[in-house]
Amino acid sequence: MSSAAASVTACRHLVRLRQTGESYDCTESETLLQGMVRLGRKGIPVGCVNGGCGVCKISVCVGSVRKVGAMSRAHVSAEEEARGVCLACRVSPLQCVEVEVVGKLKKALGFQWGAGASFRSGPADETNQSQGDMK
Ligand code: FES
């Protein structure tokens, strides 16, 4: 209701997907996944949008996010969370962030961001992110 609160919710930050180099704007009042879907973008797999399926699992490589909902330990362990791993449907950006998809669907990254966007290959190195513990 206050103007201060309104200005906070209007803050936008750039979200960059490391695998493709593509980016989109996301406000502090929406989750990283909501911001992507709002713009009709793809890149982070979308599932339940409620923290239950784990397909939107990402690692925050640069920047910081705020947790806006519970993350199931079946999908993100306390150790992973301490390393910046989270569910894109349960966090909002606090600043510009760079993320990497690490969930079980990361290889299904079918990139269709923006009409006519040029797709470029991300870093070929996808080591050390395979958790293999999705249950
Ligand atoms: S979309 Fe299901 S946990 Fe995020």
UniProtKB/TrEMBL annotation:
Classification via PROSITE patterns: 2FE2S_FER_1, 2FE2S_FER_2
Pfam families reported in the protein's UniProt record: Fer2
Residue intervals of the 2Fe-2S ferredoxin-type domain: 13-105
Gene Ontology MF annotations: 2 iron, 2 sulfur cluster binding
Stored InterPro entries: 2Fe-2S_ferredoxin-like_sf, 2Fe-2S_ferredoxin-type, 2Fe2S_fd_BS, Beta-grasp_dom_sf
Protein name as it appears in the record: 2Fe-2S iron-sulfur cluster binding domain-containing protein
Species this chain originates from: Caenimonas sedimenti
Lineage: Bacteria, Pseudomonadati, Pseudomonadota, Betaproteobacteria, Burkholderiales
